[in-house]
Structures are given as structure tokens and as C-alpha cells.
Amino acid sequence: MNSTFRKTLLALTLGAAVTSTAQAEERVLHVYNWSDYIAEDTLANFEAKTGIHVVYDVFDSNEVLEAKLLSGRSGYDVVVPSNSFLAKQIRAGIFKELDRSKLPNWDNLDPSLLKSLDHADPGNKHAFPYLWGTTGIGYNVDKVKAALGVDEITSWDVVFNPENLAKLKDCGVSLLDAPSEIFPATLNYLGEDPNPTTTDAIAKAEEALLKIRPYVRYFHSSKYITDLANGDICLAVGWSGDIFQAQSRAIEVNNGVNVGYSIPKEGAGTFFDMVAVPADAKNVDEAYAFLNYLLEPEVIAKVSDYVAYPNGNAAATPYVSEEIRTNPGIYPSKETSEKLYTFADLSPKIIRAMTRSWTRIKSGQ
Amino acid sequence: MNKLTLKRPNGRVLTVGIPYLWLLLFFALPFLIVLKISLSSMAIAIPPYESILNFTDDVLQISLNLSNYLLLLEDSLYVQAYLHSLQIAFFSTLGCLLLGYPMAYAMAKAPPRKQTILLLLIMLPSWTSFLIRVYAWMGLLSDTGLINNFLLWLGVIDSPLRIMNTDIAVYIGIIYAYLPFMVLPLYANLVKLDRSLLEASADLGSRSLHTFWTITLPLSKGGIIAGSMLVFIPTVGEFVIPELLGGPNSLMIGKILWQEFFNNRDWPVASALAIVMLALLIIPISLFHRYQSRAMEADR
């Protein structure tokens, strides 16, 4: 009896020792990022450089990421929420405070950008900007010209004036299925504060959206990439990088579809996707190594080149290919930048009212 | 003799006890947790709701927040979504029954060797992922999909039929996906049907349709109920099929639950929705249970 017990104990100890050496040999990092949001070779290069194996997983909405984080023990070491979700998540105690001494590349970040993100994360203690982009208008240049007689779209008037949108109905219009993006754009067009603080503001936006609702073919947050590239729709309110993806897909297959992107003159919403480490992350050292790697100018410049989103790294701009760097739809001019607005952290009451209104707009219920 | 009388209740306690323990662990306990969340209020924390129990200075305070349930009544959205879910579930169940009954009947009548093959054919589609099969329907039903292209080519229609993103697509998807759950219990029931009853009926001069109505159908009631429950109950809460195939008008409770949980981050209201849905389902479940126990008693 005793000897069996000892044998078992020995086996267990040995087993534990074997696993712990295996762990020491193989360092692992669990990363949860947006889909299509990294260069093809970023992870492979990181693994080659550090020997840390990256388990990479993707999501396609802030809500899904947040639900995982709020349940606790998500199992991820690095996550990338948007700045509008960050403030609440920090208050809920989801993220670790970053130790800057472990991030020597921190100074590469754009100080003015960090300052503008200060309201969501006071002192930039928990996160830094990875990539950012705008919510604007993607369109089929030839079809829009045929329908409206204009060479390029410069104003939200094309979307929010029912007379204009009616002319585009037949060639297809799509809106993001994200009230948190469409309400601010509507309110900004109406000359209101893009971030609603009262239910009256939401009612006002709803009224404007119901007027254009009959001309919208569908609400979706990713389908428009393919449809715009194939010419199945001619106008999409969507994320800049996605629309540039549609553009390059159309060029690749050479189908004659000419996709344009516009940051309208009234301004557009900007989103920043922030790199953060959950408070319960297990592989903290590996996470810091990865964060510092992402802060290297050459690394993040390659990501920008690949996904057509600008990054938050000032030192990286010279490394970004000229084609991307000089595109005003990706790196907006100073004049345009002044018109851009950020999404604020809304109160639960406003979010509920917005979700409810969105259902009414989409389904008439 | 003495030993036997002692043993019997023990075995009984065990056989009755295990299912009850199972129910307690996997139904009652999760139910109570959801009930607890539904009575709390949302908070910015992990997890995102407040505790309903508060223990301070030797005083245990229980605060129950009923406003989540009131909200469900205040806004017609929730009632409409429940009704729409029940409607979709009802007609899908009916569709599965009308399609599934002849299939099960034919299977039960087939020679035994063929039955195995037929049974395999019913189950074969579920070897492919459920999600992939629903995606395949998207390809079939869309405006430029196979069905529309084929009909256009035949010249039956001039412009593509709008099936995708409507309730019809949802019905097609649900009936397709849940048909095996109807066919299998019906088959299991029909295959046990005593043939001598049918022969007796025929001997006494009854025509086959009459025999079917008066003998086969009443005797297969258990299978019909079991199959209908297996289809109806999961369909009410179905999320994936209406989300992928349905349009903005096919608003079902699964989607509303998703919105409450993810868009509004309001776990308490989402839990209240789930509790109400369960309450709605308990009626058909208990009816089924009562029928089943009665049938078991009759068998004894």
C-alpha cells in the first residue's frame, strides 16, 4: 500500500517536473486581436526573434471582446479594445497598469495622439494606440457618378439627404450594423454633439435615419467589403481600412470596379484600437515583450502597409510605404484632422436607448 | 426475504436519485444563478452586476431589483419578440411534422435491412457542421444563389425571388436543421406499432386511410409529442438560423437576448429575458412530462 502510494507520488512529481521544464522551454502568449488586423509575417517574426509561441485568436466586435473580459479569466494576455470601450473597462478593473520601464519603445508613440486618448485612460496608464481609422463613406466611383453626376463624394449630404440616397437605392447602399458608429455620424451631420447625452438627441437622429431607411439595402459590419469590391453595392458607410481592402481586392481581380473612400467635409468619427493587458494575464513577461515589439517603428509600419490603417507610432511614419502614407483617406490632412471627432464613453441609459432605437430603425418595431 | 425488502427501496432511491441529482446540478443550480442575476442591477465591474446579498455589521441585506422584469412589460419590443419566436417555433414544428411523419412512416414500413440505411441517411447530414449547412442555405437562397439562378434559367421567373433575409428563409433553415429530431422519435414509435392491429382492421373491412386515422395516428401520439417538443423547444430560442438567414423583421428572442447581453452590457435584463422564456417553455414541457408519465403508467 505504502509503496504504491510512494510510486504514485513519485510519478506525480516527475510529471509535474516534466511539465514545468516543458513550460520553461516553450514560452506562450495568448493574443486576441481584431480579424484581418496584422501583417502576414508579424507573428512569425516575433516568434523567430523571441522564441515565444503566439496563440493568436481574432474577434470582430468590441461587444464580444468585452463580454469575454467581463466574465473574468478570459485566458488572453494581450487584447485590443477600441478607445470608446476602454474607459468603462478600466473602471471595471479589467486591465493591468503598464510598467513603462518594460516598454523602452514607448517613446516612439505620437505624443499628441496619446494626449487625445487621455480622457479614456487618464495618464495613458493602461493602453497604447495600435492602429486607428475613420468611419467614412466608401463608394463605387463610376456608379455614383452615373447616379448623382459627381466625380467624388465630399459631404455626408449624399447619405443623409433622402433625395440623394434615393438615387443610389437601386445600385445598393449599406450601413454599418453599429449604432455606436451611425448615431454619432448622423448627429454630427445635423450639427449636434456627435456623442449623444440625452434621449432627445437620439430621437432626433432616429428621425433623420428613418427618412433614409427605405433606401438602405442592409446593415452589416463586414459584408460590404466583398459587395463593394464586386460592385454589388455602390455606397457603404464603413471603416476606412475595410474600404481600402475592398479597393485593393477590386484591383487584384481587375473587374473594373473603382472604389473610392471619402472622409466627408463635415468630419467623421475616429476609432483607436488600444493594446492592453488583462489584469489576470498569466504570461505577463511575454506580453511585455510583444507590446514592446509592436512599438518598434519598422514592425508597426509593416502592419499599416498591410491593413491600410494608420498607426499610433510617430517614429514609424517614415517606414510606412509612400502609397499609404500620402493617401489622404488613410493619413488625413491637417485640415481634415481638425474635423474628426472621437467616440465618447456613453452612459448605460444612452446605450440602451440607442440599441432600442436601432432596432426600431432596422425593423420598424 | 428480509434482506430483499431492505434492498428494494435502496435501489429505488438510487435510480430515482441519480436523475434528480442530475437535474439539480445541471438545471436547478444554473437556473437559480440566472434568477439571481435577473434580480440584481448592472454595475461596472467583473462580473458586471451587483451582488443581491450584502453582509455588513452582522446584518444580511437582500436587495431584489424587479425593474428588469418591469422593463420587459414596458416596451412592446420584448412581447413582440416572444410572440414572433413562438410563432416561428410553432409553424416550424408543424412543417417538420408534416414532412417528417411520412418519412418516418415510410421508414418504419420499409424492410428491416433498408431501415438501417434509411436511418443512416437521416443522420448523415448532421456529420457536417451545423454552421456550414446554414451557410450553404445562404448560398442556395440568395438573390444570385443557385435556386434563383436555376429558376431564372428555366424562365419560370423574370426577377430573383426575395427569399434570403425573410421569415421564409428562417422557416426553411429551421425545418431543414431540425427535421431529424422529428423523424427519429416518430420512427422509433411507428416501428414498434403492432402489425396485428392493422391486419385486424383490414380483416374487418376498414380501408387503409381509415385504419391510419383510427389506429396508426392515435397510437403514434407519443412519438408526435416527443418529436414536436424536440423541435419546438430549441427553436424558440434559436439564434444562429434567424441571424444568418433572417432579415431585420425576423426579430426573435435569441437576438434580443444577444443585444441585451452584448450591446447593452445588461446581464440582469438578459437574465430576466431568459427566465421569462423558460417560464413560457415550462408549459409545453410539463404537458409533455404529464403525457409521458401517463403513458408509462399505462404501459405498466
Characterization of this structure:
The complex is a heterodimer of chains A (about 375) and B (about 300). Chain A contains 17 helices and ten strands. Chain A is an alpha/beta fold and about 375 residues long. Chain A has two domains: about 30-135 and about 270-330, 3-Layer(aba) Sandwich (D-Maltodextrin-Binding Protein, domain 2), CATH 3.40.190; about 135-270 and about 345-365, Periplasmic binding protein-like II (D-Maltodextrin-Binding Protein, domain 2), CATH 3.40.190.10. In chain A, the strands form two sheets. In chain A, strands 4, 5, 6, 7, 8, 9 and 10 form a seven-stranded mixed sheet that branches. Chain A is globular and about 65 Å long. Chain A starts with a helix and ends with a helix. Chain B is an all-alpha fold. Chain B contains 13 helices and two strands. Chain B has a two-stranded antiparallel sheet with strand order 1-2. The radius of gyration of chain B is 25 Å and the shape is flat. The model of chain B is unreliable at about 1-5 (pLDDT under 50). The chains are: A alpha/beta (about 375), B mainly alpha (about 300). The interface between A and B is medium-sized, with 27 and 21 residues. Chain B: It is a multi-pass membrane protein. Chain B: It is found in: Cell membrane. Chain B: One of its GO terms (biological process) is transmembrane transport. Chain B: Pfam families: BPD_transp_1 (PF00528).
